[in-house]
Amino acid sequence: MKRLLMCEPKFFEVSYVINPWMEGSIGKVNKALAKQQWENLYNTLSKLASVSLIEPVAGLPDMVFTANAGLVQKRASPKKQFIASSFRYPERQGEEKYFEEYFSSQGYEVLHLQQGTVFEGAGDALFDTRGKLWMGSGFRSDPRAVKEIMAALGIQASVLELIDPRWYHLDTAFCPLPEGQLVAYEKAFSEKSVEALKQAFGNNIIWVSEPDARNFACNAVSVDQTVILPKVSAEMKAALAQRDFEVIETDVSEFLKAGGACKCLTLEI
Ligand code: ARG
């Protein structure tokens, strides 16, 4: 069974601006609605996966976005490995020690990249279902993180260049699905990276429209043939259904104000 880590939005709000979605959103989160939306997502995911929780910490509003805690290598043995994030912005750096404490208390081997290498975890590092690691760079994680992670985990990884600040983490524009399928937003990537995606995924790519991308359609969680995502267009749902995916839409409007959606609110552990 898939295992996910989430963090209740007890202290979630938009109180600073570190991505374009947060601009104009300071103080605008409806906290009761955010709680309700998070619970809906939690309840949906709990039926499909085993969801663990990390205790939220006051003053760290973005800690709900557990995708950024680090990257888990489940295939490692004897212990699972956790590569701890080292955030670009001071506003999120306070989260690092809580995530590290959590993973070491759970028996993971905690690894660190070199001092000064920015890395924002599974937000910028996603395994496709064939086990290849894709890493995003351009706004948050440092390109140096790729080499260091390949060396630390002994695996191959490819870098995708993000070129639009609205799609600042790889998981805002790229979502690998089972059987080599992919959901992605073309304009988020450099030409070279679009070519690399076409090479690797060919006809298995569902390219989303700009309105869907703005609604974080790429920020989906998949469990087997079920895809859990924010509100998307009928076209996108049809494209997924055509490929035999069951779609569950769950409104996360309050989290979009901080620049995150369903996938950002989870970390595969
Ligand atoms: N406000 C958060 C930030 O800018 C949102 C993070 C969303 N997480 C993600 N994996 N895309 O860091």
Please summarize what this structure is.
The protein is an alpha/beta fold. The chain has one domain (3-268): L-arginine/glycine Amidinotransferase, Chain A, CATH 3.75.10.
Bound molecules: arginine
Shape: globular
- What are the low-pLDDT stretches, counting only 5+ consecutive residues below 50? none
For the largest sheet, list the strands in their spatial order: 2-1-15
What does this structure look like?
This protein has 269 residues and is α/β, with parallel strands linked by helices. The protein has one domain (3-268): L-arginine/glycine Amidinotransferase, Chain A. Helix content is 27%, strand content 21%. It is built from 8 helices and 15 strands. The protein has helices at residues 31-48, 90-93, 95-105, 144-153, 191-201, 210-214, 234-242, 253-256; strands spanning 3-6, 50-53, 70-73, 81-84, 109-111, 125-127, 133-137, 157-161, 174-177, 181-184, 205-207, 221-223, 226-229, 246-249, 267-268. The protein has a 3-stranded mixed β-sheet, with helices on one face. The mean pLDDT is 97.
